[in-house]
Specification:
Elements: E1 4-9, H1 17-30, E2 35-39, H2 45-49, H3 61-64, E3 75-76, E4 82-85, H4 91-97, H5 107-118, E5 123-127, H6 134-142, E6 145-151, H7 156-172, E7 180-189, H8 194-206, E8 211-217, H9 220-224, H10 232-235, H11 240-255
Parallel strand pairs: 1-5, 1-6, 2-4, 2-5, 6-7, 7-8
Antiparallel strand pairs: 3-4
Helix pairs in contact: 1-11, 5-6
């Protein structure tokens, strides 16, 4: 089966982007789906969330500059079917350096092409920096589908509009005409507040077919798990966070026919 590339992006930080990238990847791996998680954030939070140390020269910084191959960076994790291309601080420099290259928006797509061609992974999930900079725009140019994490808060719709406008620009410019909005994941949902419910309702009214049924709850356990280098399934396997990400993974499998 072909490899499907997802990018998880949002220009805001603290909206559950990396938490979703890590735990969605882990939940798909639980379903016997080979998954490659690509950590494109120089902060390397997805890398440390899986208990893997940042090592100089083990990120996509080199391949983005024409040095080395992405396939050589694929790293096994402690979880079957889940693989990682780690990040490191050097990627921060790539934000500036890529902009000075030819075809600067297509660098990541070119780097990931051998990964697609190998067909080893059914899904590739890219975790982006919390900004719509050069790395995030490259991830949008390389992906089949964009998954947006949207926090259940007042300004959510404004942020959603901004990233969707960028998607349309990339498509109109012919950079990635096939890019589609794969879905919106509502995160940090607090059932005790009217605001959380109102935001979910508003997003579902605006984009009913694109908003996943599963909402990710705000839980302490989801926040704690990365500091132990664990997915939520290892840290709190029967808690509400784990149940939510398993439910989201089931929706993703069905929506994108990953099995």
């Amino acid at each position: 089966m072909p490899t499907t590339v997802f990018t998880i992006a949002n220009q805001k930080g603290g909206v559950g982007k990396t938490t979703t990238a890590v735990n969605l990847a882990a939940a798909l791996a639980e379903n016997s789906i080979p998954v490659l998680l690509v950590d494109l954030d120089p902060q390397a939070n997805a890398t440390s969330s899986l208990g893997i140390e940042k090592v100089e020269g083990r990120s996509l910084y080199g391949p983005l500059h024409g040095e080395g191959e992405a396939l050589a960076l694929v790293t096994p994790t402690a979880w079957p079917n889940l693989f990682l291309i780690p990040s490191e601080e050097d990627l921060a420099a790539a934000e500036i350096e890529i902009a000075q290259m030819d075809n600067f928006l297509l660098k990541l797509r070119s780097v990931l092409e051998p990964v697609r061609a190998a067909g080893t992974h059914r899904a590739v999930i890219i975790d982006c920096p919390p900004a719509l900079g050069m790395l995030s725009m490259n991830s949008l140019a390389a992906a089949d589908y964009l998954l947006i994490t949207l926090q259940c808060e007042y300004m959510a719709m404004e942020g959603l509009g901004q990233i969707l406008r960028n998607v349309e620009r990339l498509k109109t410019a012919g950079i990635n005409p096939a890019l589609e909005l794969g879905g919106i994941v509502m995160t940090m949902f607090d059932a005790r507040t009217n605001l959380s419910r109102q935001v979910v309702e508003e997003v579902r009214q605006h984009l009913p077919e694109k908003t996943f049924s599963t909402v990710i709850p705000r839980t302490v356990r989801l926040s704690e798990a990365p500091s132990f280098g664990q997915t939520i399934f290892a840290y709190d396997p029967s808690g509400p966070g784990a149940l939510a990400y398993r439910s989201l993974a089931a929706e993703v499998v069905e929506r994108f026919r990953l099995k």
